[in-house]
Structures are given as structure tokens and as C-alpha cells.
Automatic annotation (TrEMBL), chain A:
HAMAP family: PurS
Organism phylogeny: Bacteria, Pseudomonadati, Pseudomonadota, Alphaproteobacteria, Sphingomonadales
Catalytic activity: N(2)-formyl-N(1)-(5-phospho-beta-D-ribosyl)glycinamide + L-glutamine + ATP + H2O = 2-formamido-N(1)-(5-O-phospho-beta-D-ribosyl)acetamidine + L-glutamate + ADP + phosphate + H(+)
Broad enzyme group: ligase
Gene: purS
UniProt-annotated location(s): Cytoplasm
BP GO annotations: 'de novo' IMP biosynthetic process
Gene Ontology CC, one term: cytoplasm
Region forming the signal peptide: none
Name recorded for this polypeptide: Phosphoribosylformylglycinamidine synthase subunit PurS
From TrEMBL, chain B:
Free-text function comment from the UniProt entry: Part of the phosphoribosylformylglycinamidine synthase complex involved in the purines biosynthetic pathway. Catalyzes the ATP-dependent conversion of formylglycinamide ribonucleotide (FGAR) and glutamine to yield formylglycinamidine ribonucleotide (FGAM) and glutamate. The FGAM synthase complex is composed of three subunits. PurQ produces an ammonia molecule by converting glutamine to glutamate. PurL transfers the ammonia molecule to FGAR to form FGAM in an ATP-dependent manner.
Entry protein name: Phosphoribosylformylglycinamidine synthase subunit PurQ
SMART domains cross-referenced by the UniProt entry: GATase_5
Protein keywords: ATP-binding, Cytoplasm, Glutamine amidotransferase, Hydrolase, Ligase, Nucleotide-binding, Purine biosynthesis
Catalytic activity: L-glutamine + H2O = L-glutamate + NH4(+); N(2)-formyl-N(1)-(5-phospho-beta-D-ribosyl)glycinamide + L-glutamine + ATP + H2O = 2-formamido-N(1)-(5-O-phospho-beta-D-ribosyl)acetamidine + L-glutamate + ADP + phosphate + H(+)
Protein encoded by which gene: purQ
Broad class of where this protein is predominantly found: cytoplasm
Pathway(s) served: Purine metabolism; IMP biosynthesis via de novo pathway; 5-amino-1-(5-phospho-D-ribosyl)imidazole from N(2)-formyl-N(1)-(5-phospho-D-ribosyl)glycinamide: step 1/2
Length: 77, 224
């Protein structure tokens, strides 16, 4: 069983990396980019039967810092 | 007087911190490896040093915060042992939950490595007793992720309870309310981004950091 965890900065949290990417896109001449936010994708290869509770605990205890980040779990068959 | 300095893979200020502890106490600190599950018996002071523990993987301080030794540090902190986290050590303490908030990438996107002006906001703590309230001091910073973040409620609480120990006297990294160092609720844990251990000898060009260690030790001896 595989799962993907998407970790993104919460709305009000400044994202200098996203801003730098935004500037670089503008530098390449791409117009119309309103905003860029960078996040992380973490792919997990899990033993079959890993519970949703465990997966959620992994996110809360390590993969995301919930003071500044949100996470979204996507299970891949 | 017994002090310990925690060493993670990627710590690089552990030896400087040990030198500062030794200069203030006259005793060599015990260097404690991240895999250790116990601290030396009767330890009075624990240093969590600067550096790039675990290569800053995932988030600065995130992996170190989950290492076996930090469980022992958290237990010691809850019993009232003084814990000083500097730079990466501050990041580790927020990731451990011993201090509130988080340290984000510097607002300007750049690594900042220079002397900065600080104001001592709280001169009553175990760490700041040798400074005067409102005193302006100069301590160097060297970090990429020093931009202190917390929600408004947490910030107001920190300010209201006198838990902002140091504030930047200038814009350095985008830190909310220019916070450079904070205390935990009981005042025995301090996290700060500037490096006091780098300015303790006249040969360093400045000795503003020395009083932090001296005051800390003075307080510990008075309590003993």
C-alpha cells in the first residue's frame, strides 16, 4: 500500500521559497502568475493494513509541523 | 555543577558551547550523543547547540527533536533543569514542543551571518540576570531559518508573561515582533537564534555573550 502526504504551509505563513520561485518565473517572462506557494510531497510505502490512525499520527508527529503546516493524505492503491 | 551539551549528527557549535560552559563553570561539560537515552545524573544545565542537525532534513530541528536524547531533555526540563537552545538548538526546542511557535525560512530568503543589535527584554530570568532590562547588546547570528512565527494569541501571551527574553534591535530575518529569544512558561528553558557562545572572550572582539553563561551559573550556584 502506498500513500502520498502533501505538506503545505498554512495560509498566513510567509513562504520565501514560493516568492523566489514566483520571481524566477516572472524573470523567465511568464506573465499572469499571481502567487506561488511551495510545499512537500512525501511518498510512503506501507505494510498492507496500516491503519488510518497510524498514518495520521505519522503526519502529526513528524511529517508536518502543525504550528505552520497543513497536510493532506492521498492513498494510492 | 554538572552541565551537558547534546551532540547531533550535523551539530557544529557543540564545542563552542562546551567551551562557554566550561569558562563559566570551571567544569568540562559532558557531551551527550543523540542516541543516548539518559543524561548524566544530577545534570544542572543542558545545552542544545547550533548547527545543521540531520542536515536540516524535513524541517530544521525536526529529526533531532525526535531523537532518543530529546525525550530525556524534555523530562529534565519538566523537572526544572535549565535548558539553553541556541540557533539550531532553538529550532529543536520548538520542534520538541518545549517552546511555542516555529522558526521559518528568513523572510529575505538569505542566510544571515553577522553581528546584530539585540535588546534584553527580560532581565529577571535565570539566563539574563546579569543584563539590565532594556540593555542593548551585540551578538552574532548565523542562520537561514530564524524567522520566528507564532499565532497572535501565543505572541500576546509571550509578551504578557515577560517571556520574550531578547528582541532584535533591527530587521534581521522577518521574525514576528522582532523576537530573537523566548522562555518557556516556567522560565527554565531559553531558545535564542543569536550565538552568545561566540562572544565570550576579548579575542572575539566582544564579550556581550559571556554574562548569559555567568548569570546562569551564578543562579545555579545560589540555588544549590
Amino acid at each position: 500500500m502506498k500513500a502520498r502526504v502533501f505538506v503545505t504551509l498554512k495560509g498566513g505563513v510567509l513562504d520565501p521559497q514560493g516568492r523566489a520561485i514566483h520571481h524566477a518565473l516572472e524573470g523567465l517572462g511568464f506573465a499572469g502568475v499571481n502567487d506561488v506557494r511551495a510545499g512537500k510531497l512525501i511518498e510512503l510505502d506501507l505494510a498492507d493494513g496500516t491503519s488510518d490512525e497510524d498514518l495520521d499520527a505519522m503526519c502529526r508527529k513528524l511529517l508536518a509541523n502543525t504550528v505552520i503546516e497543513n497536510y493532506r493524505i492521498e492513498k494510492v492503491a | 555543577m554538572k552541565c551537558a551539551v547534546i551532540v547531533f549528527p550535523g551539530s557544529n557549535c557543540d564545542r563552542d558551547l562546551a567551551v562557554a560552559f566550561e569558562a563559566a563553570t570551571g567544569v568540562k561539560p559532558v557531551m551527550v550523543w543523540h542516541r543516548d537515552t539518559q543524561l548524566p545524573d544530577g545534570v544542572d544545565l543542558i545545552g542544545v547547540p547550533g548547527g545543521f542537525s540531520y542536515g536540516d532534513y524535513l524541517r530544521s530541528g525536526a529529526m533531532a527533536a525526535r531523537s532518543p536524547v530529546m525525550q530525556a531533555v524534555a523530562e529534565a526540563a519538566s523537572r526544572g533543569t535549565n535548558v539553553l537552545g541556541i540557533c539550531n538548538g532553538f529550532q529543536v526546542l520548538t520542534e520538541t514542543g518545549l517552546l511555542p511557535g516555529a522558526l521559518l525560512r528568513n523572510a529575505g530568503g538569505h542566510f544571515v551571518c553577522r553581528d546584530v543589535a539585540l535588546t534584553v527584554e527580560n532581565a529577571q530570568s535565570a539566563f539574563t540576570s546579569r543584563y539590565a532590562a532594556g540593555e542593548a547588546i551585540t551578538i552574532p547570528v548565523a542562520h537561514h531559518d530564524g524567522n520566528y512565527f507564532a499565532d497572535t494569541q501565543t505572541l500576546d501571551r509571550l509578551e504578557g508573561e515577560g517571556r520574550v527574553a531578547f528582541r532584535y534591535g533591527e530587521r534581521v530575518n522577518g521574525s514576528m515582533r522582532n523576537i530573537a529569544g523566548i522562555l518557556n512558561e516556567s522560565g527554565n528553558v531559553l531558545g535564542m537564534m543569536p550565538h552568545p557562545e561566540r562572544v565570550i572572550e576579548p579575542a572575539h572582539g566582544n564579550t556581550d555573550g559571556r554574562r548569559l553563561f555567568e548569570g546562569l551559573v551564578e543562579g545555579l550556584l545560589a540555588r544549590a
